[in-house]
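hiii, so i know i said id send this last week but things got crazy w the move. better late than never?? heres the sequnce for the chain we talked about at the cafe, plus the structure i predicted for it. fair warning i was half asleep when i ran it
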Amino acid sequence: MLATVTTTISLLTVLSCVESYLLQPDVVSQDCMQCLCNISSWCTFKGCTNVTGFIACGYYQISQDYYVDCGSPGSDWKTCADDLNCATYCVQSYMRRYRNQPHCHYNCLSYAMLHKGGPSACGHVDSSNYLAHFWGLMAKAGCHENS
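okay and structure toks below
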């Protein structure tokens, strides 16, 4: 009986934590999410592509490592990446996890850098070529730093 009560309490605690995490407000604005989607695929179904030696899939061109870092929502990596809602959730979760990295700001430029360059991307802000690359991507997608 005690084991059942303990298991039930543990399960309720886990469910409560999961629910509070899922109900957290979005980190990235809808305008910026549209920018990230445009930068990645012009927000059209793209499937998987080989990008400089690694495979990235879906609307946001999510790699398998990115998918793991975002918490592995949905049934699997490629299915989630190809589903706009699941992929959007994954990107929001990824940003929630990494937005406090050194040199990152809570703006769309930093989110684009994190999205395309990984958790250490904001640390490369000293490189004018690196920063110019992301400014170019955002401008091409019709976005600005604070989208």
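btw Helices lie at 2-22, 30-41, 64-69, 77-82, 84-98, 108-117, 128-140. thought thatd interest u
miss u guys!!
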